[in-house]
Amino acid sequence: MDTSDLFEFKQDQEFSKLLHHDNYIDLTTAALEIARDDQPDLVFDSVHTWIRQRASELSSRVALAEDDRSLIQAVVECLAKEHGLMGNNICYHRAEGSYLNHVIENKQGLPISLSLIYMAVGKELGIEIQGVAAPMQFILRYETQAGPLFIDPYLKGAVYNEEECLIRLAELTDLSKKELSRLLKPATHREIIIRMLMNLKRIHEEQQDYQKAWNVQRRLFALSPLSNAHKKDLAAYSFKIKQLSLSIELLESCLKSCPESEWNSIKLMLQKAHSELAQWN
């Protein structure tokens, strides 16, 4: 593969919008486009239909909600209680916990994938539920006149006010509540997709599935083409899956832009790639 082909995602219309710096995309479809890397025959319609069905179930309940908290509790009751969506630690080690079709089927997933489902159902209802890339755990934010409410889909849709949310996050991190409060702003669509990709990269690396890790890293590099770290990681995965010419091209590009402190490690990687390529030729 030539480096110019790394940025081609012709089948992925929503993901491609991010490459052109569009601020808003259909997050559900973009997440499914990522899942399709691992499931080439994935049909998106079943996920979109499930989301519309949940919105239909909720429409009258939402309309009759007495206040904002009651409205959010109705969403939680439907998705977490009636349809059983929740977190499971095993999802941190399996890619299926990031794929919306599997999350819906298995009723468990990572915080970010569960959150995307809540956001999608909310969007169908005309309710803006926003993602928050909080440290350690992705959560949701819903604005009210009395202040924001936060939802933790991983914990069966636990609902917090801001103070309660800060206490919960402080238990998971070493950060103070003051530091955490600055991190509770809504995440951009780009930030959400990058966080999802980073989760998948970690899982594939842990499982030593370097082809799948390469697929994810290619997307991360496409989103941040000036990042030497992403370019170097893509070169490393390219070496592992025997795309040696690509690995060499990426490493040579790294040498032109990386800090001098990284030269030795990159030159060593280049030496190994050239040596391996010579054995193939």
TrEMBL record:
Q: Which residues form the Protein SirB1 N-terminal domain?
A: 49-197
The organism's superkingdom is given as: Bacteria
Q: Which residues form a coiled coil?
A: none
- One Pfam family cited in the UniProt record for this chain: Transglut_core2
The UniProt similarity line reads: Belongs to the UPF0162 family.
Record protein name field: Protein SirB1 N-terminal domain-containing protein
Upper classification of the organism = Bacteria, Pseudomonadati, Planctomycetota, Planctomycetia, Planctomycetales
